[in-house]
Structure of diguanylate cyclase:
Amino acid sequence: MHPLTWLDNRTLLACQCMLASSFACLLLGFRSAYPALRGARTLASAFLLGIPGILLIAMRGHISFFLSVVTGNLLVYVSLLLLYRGVLLIFNEKRYFTFALVFVCITGALHVYYALIDERIVPRIVIASVTMGVLSLLKAWTVFVHAERRIHRILFVISLLSAGCISLGRGVLTLIHGAPHDYMQQNPVQTYALLLGLLYIAVQGIFNLSLMYFDLASTIRDKAHRDPLTSILNRRAIEDKLQEELSRGDRTGWPVCALLIDVDFFKSVNDTHGHAAGDHALKLVAETLTASLRPFDHLGRFGGDEFLLILPELTLPDASARAESFRVALARTDAPTLSIGIAESDPGESAPALLARADAALYSAKHAGRDCIRLHHSAAIHPSDQSASMGT
């Protein structure tokens, strides 16, 4: 006796429906708790649509031919399309969805043709197999592009490739050997197809949930590192970035410039115009600075009215020129002026030491009348020469 005959087809079908229902409930729960989570509602809809589709197909012979063969399969096609759409939404992708939509419309129309006009079951099974196979391969490609060497995404790619190839292979085998007359017929071929369907639902649900879990964890982690008012890095995050850049600079030999930036007369803005005006000024400064940054520069809010800007791989004169461009850009807005202190890292210098020198330069800028830039050249300069090391 073949081991697959130990499994009951109706039990496998019930397991498919229960598993799809469970994943739909979990996804809707994610969506309810985190409304901004991309793709959850679409994926839940995909699982919910698949359940009646599977049931209608399985009830062939007990309900009308149109409901079972046409409606059931079209629901499954839409479910497969929504599974692909959900993955695209998770990665904020738009490529290939139009192709997938047109493809499913064509295969759906062909399925209707071979169900109502040219009533042949083999073309219908081949069309269904090709539809599932192509959409699985499209999903595999999307996840692969965004894999980023993450093991759960790589495993998802492998499972999608396997599902796609198996589905396409089923279409080829149907062309060669023909199709069974009874979908619920108890034989190894039909049981194998139902078992693969169950595994496909499990793989889709588990890996889609893992994609959203890691996406959600990344979002929460990013929010924990962001200043809620300006959306730039908070103090802890910017200090961590400074340490990372100093460690990288020690390995590469490139210096790192730290800029402490103070909003001039910020307390007066709050006292005169209110805290809303102060918040607006801080956000305007953050937006203006961010617009001028390179992809690998880092900006964070260091205190109430202070910002820390990290410029890797720049010397002091270059950092000074960048700081002047910030001041010029800000002068075109209604934001307050800035006092800026800049220090360039020495080899092996610690983050607190570099910040202390940048703070000394900022202190010098404030006492020079504000709205200016002061530089602190090196911690190695003799104390008697320290005053000469600060300037515009």
Observations:
- The beta strands are 256-263, 298-301, 306-312, 338-344, 373-376.
- The chain has two domains: 3-223, 235-389.
